[in-house]
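Narrative summary of target 7.
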Amino acid sequence: MAVFHLLLGLLGKALILLCCLLFVAFLGYCLYLRHIHMKYDHIPGPPRNSFFLGHSPTLLRIMKKDGLVHDKFLEWSETYGHVYRLNFLHYVTVCVTCPEATKEILMSPKYPKDKFVYKRLFYLFGQRLFGNGLITARDHDMWYKQRRIMDPAFSSLYLRGLMGTFNERAEKLMNKLSELADSNKEANMLQLVNCVTLDVIAKVAFGMELDLLKNTSPFPKAIETCLKGMVHYVRDVMFEYNPRNRTFVNEVRDACRLLRTTGAQLIQKRKIAMQNGEEVPKDILTQIIKTAATEETMTEEDEEFMLDNFVTFFIAGQETTANQLAFCIMELGRHPDILEKAKKEVDDVIGMKQEISNDDLGKLIYLSQVLKETLRIYPTAPGTSRDIEEDMTIDGVHIPAGVNCMFSTYTTGRMEKFFKDPMKFDPDRFHPDAPKPYYCYYPFALGPRSCLGLNFAQMEAKVVMAKLLQRFDFNLIPGQTFDVQDTGTLRPKSGVICTVKHRKYKN
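Modeled conformation, tokenized:
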């Protein structure tokens, strides 16, 4: 009995000690948080919702209402100026729209990608997603080695060789639209272009035959699930600990595993075929493996990087281009005069021929303007962020080291300061003779970390749009919303529902 009382006494003391330690830790964190506030509160910004949570309750409230947090960033930029501060627990983010600072930071390799955001994209709810691929690698040397391996697969010479595939897959979409036109059925353009862009990246990058306009596949759903999970994982650190979210979290983990398992199988199969001297497709995957083999050393981690980049290309190479195409169709449907001008250019350059050449794309100048203006108002990848590791001054505001800087091309693209009447869809802003936007338009980011697939994406988008304008008249179904949905990338919330009819040509 005495031993029992002794144990109870020891347990009680241990609990008291633990409570004291927790209280001291809590007090220490409160003091640290107060220090962070005092260090950065000279930077303008909206009032915090809470001492601990900072501004996150506002952003989470917008997300729960299926709103767009980027509109709030735009509002805050117009209220607080070129530089304003946001707090999330003990993290501080400085949102910057100053073109000079945008140029200095994004064009330089000395500012690494933001560790908070990009480290959270390494794993998604404990399951590896992008890992240390081209998007997420923070170490410059590690990133540069991967970029050097990837560059030949995206050279202009190699991309010109993909025109046949771009044409072939776009033709499948035209056939599907022809069926819908003949049967007088509505077309969900976002869904259709999603199928095409995923078909294209699967074929030209990895030799996969999906044919999603005819076949079902788990990949579109897996990509969408990963992107939705990414939004919650980055913006709500407590999301995965809420029991009500457990089912969705498991779905995200399964989606990550599906993409990486598929990539591992494809890479291994291709390597074996190449080692055995078999004929393999001259696609991006083959090019990557060949170039990687020229490296002096290839470690197991390098092999994992290849898988990271499979996921990167599989998601980024499909999602952003599909959303751009859908937004473009939506805006052309809302502006008949611009639509007619784009059609006339396609008629003059392409005529009635079915196979579009790389030279033809270079002559579609107005269509290029339309696509660029689409990305100004609807940048499918709305921004990027960098760590500031040394004190600096931005637009007259002293920024102590230790923060991350967020750059939003969605925000700058919709600011009157940079674009007159910014919500007006006007492709002439990007006329060859018009002044170029000065570091306030960067839908593919800027500098050494700009998007490797820029030319790939725009070639694909032009081929699809040119064929669509060449063959069909389309009209938006009345009553649908033109709102933007945030799923990590930005997409049209309505899906862009259209009626489609064959064009009638005058003899």
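The chain has one domain: 27-502.
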